[in-house]
Amino acid sequence: MAERRAGTPLLEVRNLSVTFPQASGDVRAVRDISYTISEGEFLGIVGESGSGKSVSSLAIMGLLPDNARVEGEILFQGRSLLRLDDRELSRIRGKELSIIFQDPLSALTPVYTIGDQIGEALRLHDRTLTRQAAETRAVELLRIVGIPDPVRRVKAFPHEFSGGMRQRAMIAMAIANNPRLIIADEPTTALDVTIQAQILEVLEEAKRITGAAVSLITHDLGVIAGHADRVAVMYAGKLVELGAVDDVFYEPTMPYTIGLLRSVPNIRTAGTERLVQLEGRPPSLAALPPGCPFAARCPVAIPRCSVDEPELVPHGTDLSHPSACHRADEIAAGTLPRPAIFPRPEPLPIADRAPVDDAVVLSVTDMVKHFPLTRGGVFRRRIGTVRAVDGVSFEIAAGRTLAIVGESGCGKTTTILELMELTAPQRGSIVVEGRDVATLTATQRRALRSDIQIVFQDPAAAVDPRLPVGEVIGEPLVAQRVPREVRDRRVAELLELVGLDAAMADRYPHEFSGGQRQRIGIARGLATDPRILVLDEPVSALDVSIQAGVINLLQDLRDALGLSLVFVAHDLAVVRQIADDVAVMYLGRIVEHGPIATVFDDPKHPYTQALMSAAPIPDPAAERERSRVLLDGDLPSPAQEITGCRFRTRCPLYKLLDEAAQARCIGEDPALQPKDGVSVACHHVERNTLVVG
Amino acid sequence: MTLSSIDALTEKDSDGFGIDVPPDERPVRGRRSLSRNGLIWRRLKAMPRFWIGGSVLTFLVLFAFVGPVLSPYTFSQQDVMYFNYPPTTVHWFGTDQLGHDVLTQVMVGLQKSLMIGFIAGPLATILSALIGSFAGYVGGAADKAIVWFIDLMLVLPAFFVLIILYPFFRGASWIVMTFFLALTGWMIMAQVVRSQTRSLRERDFVKAARYMGFGPWSVVTRHIIPNVASLLIIDATLGVGAMILAETSLSFFGFGVQLPDVSLGSLLDAGDAAAVTRPWLFLAPAIVVVVLLLAINLVGDALRDAVDPTSKVNHG
User: From CA A229, how far away is CA A118, in angstroms rounded?
Assistant: First the structure.
């Protein structure tokens, strides 16, 4: 915990409102919020998309578009930021106050080197600094944020950096002038989980060196739990709960926070209990209903909630933990118990579950997918090979769920797309329902397609915007030449099955929300009554509160229909919630494979260990006790030739080994070997003493 | 009318239109939100360009197709009383040296030009849609062959091809020329459709359709073409103008519509020698061509901006 200094707060936001005037009605993005940040404090601002969390921080930086109407008061070190003109504000921005954006690629100028950009930030606020001195300082800053070989890298252009390195460079720029406050706007959302862990570590380090306060904006409760001192929860432009991280996580007094916390799976416990789903969606900021904006989704709303909006006031004895709820006193006193507000939904009764046998429905053996890298126009020559999938084997029994996890670029999506082709892979074999796909004729292949269907990640891209959803859902049946009347009946049935109104079949996809569109995608996947449903990151594009509903739906459908699921995801907690077995992929290979509880509770491969310890846990106490296995650097390109074990370039275990043992890692490619009920591809499992928390 | 009543009227007016939100912008509650086509139509309605172009075009179409019926003359009829006559009440646009009524000739010529434009323009678009989306979706060797063919067609100057083929075209009907124009005018759009298709092919809904077991033809007609439809509609509209212009130029040089058929181009050809001495012979078809192209391009332009609001680069 950071020390708190007495006296005036570093930043004080008083009654801040931001409105975007629009022809169809004013969009009230932020409404009357007040909070403070003390020197050296780490404040986490959490909320779903459209909750106003980013807008309120951009208002502090004075970076809102000109048409935004900003009201209220923002005091930074006692000075009112809203009254400063742009020139005066520029003197503070980047010096006292700095920001780290979500997308480091668009935040860095592609035409200047990283060193020039850091140097510019330095020289803007210190005219006496020479170019050489600025570059020396830039090298020093890059070293602080953990960029290897900073003397060379300072001359690199942003496109030569990976996403994680760019974000490090952004942090270097942000701390260049020893700021008092760093605003980090979703700094790790675009990054992989192991890189996210590195970046958050760098941010902590930067905070420690400069002593600056940090305001971290995120939608990830796990990230907040692990790093913040205090949490501010935002909903529909309002601050609805504010308090120390333990208070908010363990004793929330606003039903929205309670629901949100119960809707995210925890990687330690996921799968043992169902997730709470928040029904409905946040109100439109252009047409806010009177009263509490959460009233329509709140299971314990009373008539008063839809009349007057609750103020953010303390409840009970703790004055540092205010929340905006009319019934917060009851919640704080315990007369309205939290589990009673959002009870966990019951799992599907055994009687409703489809009986399944243990038959293997899908088996993939030694599948390979290489892409040639070519150069030249007319006379193409091969300059390398991308080993996207390089010898992957797994099988799935009826009614089971296999999760394939790994960072982006590990080949998990290529694996399932290759599977969906239902043609002979470059090497190895795919057997669906006992039939080798290499032997199928075109007609047989089309018929087999009704047994294996796919649901994509981005619900906006997965449905044709030009077709009404009834057509979209019925499409696989058109492909199977099912007559129109049967199709229409089935579409109505499917809409009901995924929790949508059958009367919605005539509507177009753009009229649905993200969560609803994902349900449409699932309904389409189920149209032909398949045995296997392949899901490519089905919930990663959805907000947390929506995500839980889709996960629950998938669980219920699997149990009711006896489906086998192949679930590709990078969110390990979500995976643990739904899967029976897990395969961890690294650079086109499976490195660990086994029952999910065994693999996640006792990971054996160093990569699995690193993944597990990088995954944030939405539980502050658990986060504090963790010991982490951090990885160095980024995922190597799959085009790179690495002899022996592919993971050795980043392996924390490899560094601890003696030379003879390292030689084995360099010389010999480890195969999956059984070990305590799971399969692991590591030569030195026995010697692995890395501790994962 | 007294002064106060005028005041009252204007006040009422501003109440109805000035202060109040225009009816289209008013949020409709409890109704289905606007479909994409509804949105395009709403934007289109708000554009004066569309209304001006549209009404001029409608007028010209009526002029070309109803005009000759009402006219007391036919286009080949000679009025022996009036040779080379300037505009009079009897012959509104005057007559040529053979006593043909210029007004009727312009109406019939316009009719032919419109027919050629409205057939050749959309025909070229259909060709480009089919060829472009097929090449883009299938990829591989077929794509390479089609791209090569497109490039070949682009480097061949259509005008010279026509001159070489002229001996075969001489005496052929205007339909042949219409097809010739369509066959030489689809390439650029095919390239655009092909590149659009290549990006659409990577979209998840197209992948999904493929994994459902649809063949290339079904995917192209179900998903690709509807998603480039707005582009195609604009191209077809602007294509009408381009084809009319091409027809006019060809006919002007004598390679296009042959006698006894007349088109705006052949009328211009006939009249250009007399442009100074008997300007009515030249001016009448020339003005009609200019007004027609302006009207079509106004409509096409409005359509493009309605479909893609970001294309308004030159409208501030």
Answer: 29
